[in-house]
Amino acid sequence: MNKCEANNTALTPITFLKRAAMFYAERNSIIYGGARFTWHQTYDRCRRLASSLLSLGLAKNNVVSILAPNIPALYEMHFAVPMAGCVLNAINTRLDANNIKSILHHSEAKIFFVDYEYIPLAYQAIRLLENRPSIVIIKENENSITMDNLDSHQYKDYEELITTGNAKFVPKKIEDEWDPISLNYTSGTTSSPKGVVYSHRGAYLSTLSMLLGWEMGSQPVYLWSLPMFHCNGWTLTWGIAARGGTNICIRYPTASLIYESIQLHDVTHMCCAPVVLKILLEEKPNNERVHLTSRVNILTGGAPPPAKLLKEMNEVGFHVVHAYGLTEATGPALVCEWQKKWDRLSLDEQARLKTRQGVSVLNITDVSVKDMVTMQSVPNDGKTIGEIVLRGSGIMKGYFKNEKATSKAFEYGWFHTGDLGVIHPDGYIEIKDRLKDVIISGGENISSVEVEGVIFQHPKVSEVAVVAMPHPRWGESPCAFIVKSAKDKSVTEQEILMYCRCNLPRYMVPKKTCFVKELPKTSTGKVQKGALRAIAKKFDVPNSNIEFESDKKHIVSRL
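The structure assignment produced for this chain is given below.
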């Protein structure tokens, strides 16, 4: 039996939009302020834009970059760019001009779409380039930009490209599902950002796995609180089309706008990092919060959420599911699937279980936790730590123009995440730390995540990050950087240390705490522990810490 056109077609998420236009034609596809589009209109606009891209001279696999917040144009380009046979590069809006310049140069972008708000930043980046891409400006109205730094002959207008595009355009046929569909750059906290290449096949399978893993039903109303430039919105840019849902786009993910959107549009789903969960809890007093008439499902990832935070979100009316993923895994690779038997547990125990990263989504063929020396799987005891490794069709094609880094990431036939974790007896995985963030004190491995989880339970703590600091006897010891709660800032260092002594093994108790106004974060919202380690290196171990007899006994045992 042979393959033929009838029984073998390339997998690509582009097909989700055509299907949505056929079966959900008059249903709202995108709502942005006062603007509304149907799926029929979105399909028409994407085809027109794709035809205009080709009229500008783009060829197969050319890179098209865009710098924009969560607006309709960015959503449309997730379909229009691959419809033209090109590769989408959504750039993080929090980057500086030099980083943007580096991405444009490395990706060899042919066209650069820029939202009006980011014109000064974009032009600052472009001036640093020798080979400059063509510019397309995305306006919201004729008064949304000034012409001070623009020459009308130097750029094209986004809406004009759609208006003049061919309404009968037939999207480029994807002959090989291994062809690239998008190029996403890592945040580069420890090295230069690397360009992660996704295939049409990987994006398609990752999207379906995401929908199934999160148990997203039909016709969801999805609020874009997660930036679309994060792993293509964790593939939900394509996924909402697959479910015939409605995209609620907001330019700024503030607490007030999120609550307002939930109430106005009956939002059913949203994604965000744990930091956004904290914003939702802290930036609006309880009596001003919108009353949630129905449950809002939240998928969170990017950092392990403390159990206390998950419990508080549940009390407000949000059902939070924890996922784990990486740019290289096309977004979520693990999800903490809920088991009905857990419904009988206490809320505290449920919250604790939710902090685990969970089980693999369906496009991940295999996941394991390996001993980093022997590459043997660690036992499912919830204690033995190893590196989390993955295999599956959702894993990236590789790093763009970086064969060395690609080979290293795929050593021994696995993708190495660089994250350390354990496997519980029920098969659920739990992250303990980043490989580079483990604190080795007197030969003992200390999980910074575990220490952070305990400190975060303190009612007067808003945020916490734990890193290694030098210790004259043990080599390293934990140092905690803490942001005080806005509701009560009376907490002291000794109060935190005493709290840790009551809730942690003695060797895991921080030897110093440092209160800060805010934690340094990357452009993707992750805490820059490298910057904190640099500060902690200058600290001396204080002699004023209270010691108990149990501490002395522990010191003897370690010697």
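Interim note for the steering committee: The longest helix spans residues 39-55. The CA atoms of residues 270 and 299 lie 7 Å apart.
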